[in-house]
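$ ./design --mode recover --in tokens.txt
reading tokens...
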């Protein structure tokens, strides 16, 4: 298996297939302008989640187009929540399925649309090799056994298909989610501080629905999994010129924010 932090295929920004980008957005490029735009949208995540997640969905379609042709593909979005990504994937020509363990999350935009499944990411209710793309965005840090979920994502991906796993890093600035930056003093302490300050528990409860997941953890899983070829292990939101950060222990945990692991199923 190639070294997990080294791409064995063309990365999306250099792949001609990505030049179409997301509908109405233009060519997808991992440049500084994209990073700044996503950061501006991210700042509104708590007050206007539709703005951030819709922008991230469009960006994801552009990025994923460098790994596979979404037109005619079957996509499973593990932890898809209320469906912010549905429109973007369907506009790219994909058949979209969303799975979440929380009925409240699934109905966050009103009624639960067709193609939505209530289930457990660590025990996906799909047969082996069922989908062309198994996608997960900012979910792994919310499950107690994240690498079991990653294994399950590979199981349901067809041979030649793609598993795209993206998660928020614990030691990044947003690792504690709404309890940040106090998570740097410990997740339990940050949770208690939030409850004392706001009079209620945070949505993302450390030790229950939020867990510490690192770049080191992801690289270790990428090396030991035997189901496919690691295509990329890269910082999701960073410009391409900073991809080298994933090779520097310590620094990568602080400066990466979010890690993407891309595996092509054998």
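writing sequence...
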């Amino acid at each position: 298996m190639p070294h997990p932090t080294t791409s064995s295929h063309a990365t999306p920004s250099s792949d001609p297939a990505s030049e179409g980008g997301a509908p109405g957005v233009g060519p997808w490029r991992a440049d500084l302008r994209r990073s700044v735009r996503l950061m501006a949208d991210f700042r509104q995540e708590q007050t206007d989640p539709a703005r951030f997640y819709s922008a991230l969905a469009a960006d994801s379609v552009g990025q994923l187009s460098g790994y596979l042709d979404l037109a005619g593909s079957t996509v499973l979005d593990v932890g898809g929540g209320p469906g912010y990504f549905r429109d973007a994937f369907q506009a790219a020509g994909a058949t979209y399925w969303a799975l979440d363990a929380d009925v409240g999350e699934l109905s966050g935009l009103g009624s639960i649309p067709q193609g939505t499944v209530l289930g457990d990411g660590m025990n996906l209710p799909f047969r082996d090799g069922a989908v062309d793309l198994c996608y997960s965005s900012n979910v792994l840090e919310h499950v107690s056994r994240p690498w079991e979920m990653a294994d399950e994502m590979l199981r349901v991906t067809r041979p030649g298909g793609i598993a795209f796993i993206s998660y928020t890093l614990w030691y990044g600035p947003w690792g504690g989610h709404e309890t940040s930056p106090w998570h740097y003093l410990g997740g339990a302490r940050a949770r208690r501080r939030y409850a004392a300050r706001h009079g209620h528990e945070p949505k993302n409860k450390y030790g229950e629905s939020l867990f510490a997941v690192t770049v080191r953890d992801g690289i270790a899983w990428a090396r030991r999994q035997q189901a496919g070829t690691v295509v990329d292990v890269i910082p999701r939101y960073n410009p391409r010129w900073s991809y080298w950060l994933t090779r520097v222990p310590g620094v990568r945990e602080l400066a990466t924010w979010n890690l993407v692991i891309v595996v092509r199923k054998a």
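exit 0
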